[in-house]
Design brief:
Blueprint (H helix, E strand, L loop, with lengths): L8 H20 L5 H10 L4 H29 L4 H21 L6 H13 L6 H25 L17 E3 L5 H15 L5 H18 E8 L2 E9 L3 E7 L5 H13 L4 E7 L3 H9 L3 E8 L4 E9 L3
Parallel strand pairs: 4-5
Antiparallel strand pairs: 1-2, 2-3, 3-4, 5-7, 6-7
Length: about 300
């Protein structure tokens, strides 16, 4: 199977979260659990770090959506359709505005979803009670997502590789910078034939400064010869993996990446769309695509790929 279409851990965790929400509310008999399930799908992240950072924002966004939905239900009661539609549209605009004001943009989607679900759902209770019930169900979905991300760790089921076995990998020092930059330049030119070589030469000085000032670089050596390296920026962003030995390129890349996957909880990388070999490599190593980024200077697309210990 093409690794792009394999069933990953995030897929499985999402299904588990949906199942928990459906079963819980159906056992209680107070709801069908659909709202909690939708919330779980929206909130599911591949890493516990992401869930912790956004969890409270999502709860805040949920409160905003539910509160405005209740107010809207009261306002549009017994009003003509065209007027009620206008009120709903104003509510959506207001939700987006408030999420921007409170700097919880990541919660905008769930806030709007909660708002609309409460409005279109079958209402068998007064607006205030109905809104509170939907709010509780939504928060339950957020909680389920957090707990599943917190306690389901694929490393429990996979054989761990011993970090001590990476005897050929070590942290670089400033003395390696000239050779590192030579490998960086040659690798980028050969890996991106559609990009003008001058582009990489223009980047040379800024990359060199970055390597010296704010990068963690791990090198692969054999018989005291440096064959490749991986550079990490901002604690978790892979600037690139570069290998001198073309015959063992993929093997060395994999060892360097796997070494960092045991040292970091999360990793991200940007890859040019035409660099299919790199895309396939990262996807095979359990990275997943999160967004497309248009590079105006090169008139091309980059993919942002993410990995975490929970993916």
């Amino acid at each position: 199977m093409d690794p792009r279409y394999k069933i990953g851990m995030r897929n499985i965790k999402t299904a588990i979260a949906v199942g928990v929400c459906l079963i819980f509310f159906q056992i209680l008999g107070i709801s069908d659990g659909i709202i909690a399930s939708i919330t779980a799908v929206i909130c599911m992240k591949s890493s516990i770090q992401n869930s912790l950072l956004t969890g409270m924002q999502r709860v805040t966004g949920t409160f905003i959506g539910a509160l405005l939905a209740v107010v809207t239900l009261i306002l549009i009661e017994d009003t003509p359709y065209h007027i009620s539609t206008l009120v709903v549209l104003i509510g959506v605009v207001l939700i987006i505005y408030l999420c921007n004001v409170f700097k919880i943009q990541a919660s905008t989607i769930i806030s709007v979803v909660v708002f609309l679900i409460i409005l279109v759902g079958e209402k068998d209770a007064p607006p205030l009670i109905y809104g509170i019930m939907r709010l509780v169900e939504t928060i339950f979905g957020i909680a389920v997502t957090y707990l599943i991300n917190r306690f389901i760790d694929p490393r429990i089921f996979l054989k761990k590789t011993n970090v001590e076995s990476y005897t050929q990998i070590s942290k670089s020092d400033d003395e390696d910078i000239a050779l590192l930059m030579a490998i960086w330049l040659n690798s980028n030119i050969s890996s991106h034939p559609s990009i003008d070589e001058l582009y990489w030469h223009r980047l040379y000085d800024s990359v060199r400064k970055s390597y010296l000032d704010n990068s963690e670089i791990f090198i692969f050596e054999e018989d005291e010869k440096l064959l490749g390296f991986i550079s990490i920026l901002e604690y978790s962003k892979i600037e690139g993996i570069y290998v001198l030995d073309k015959e063992r390129k993929r093997t060395i890349e994999k060892q360097l990446l796997n070494y960092c996957q045991q040292s970091y909880n999360t990793l991200s990388v940007n890859v040019f769309a035409e660099n299919k070999d790199a895309l396939d490599f990262y996807i095979n190593e359990n990275f997943y695509q999160t967004e497309e980024i248009y590079n105006e200077e090169l008139n091309t697309v980059e993919y942002n790929l993410q990995w975490s210990v929970k993916s």
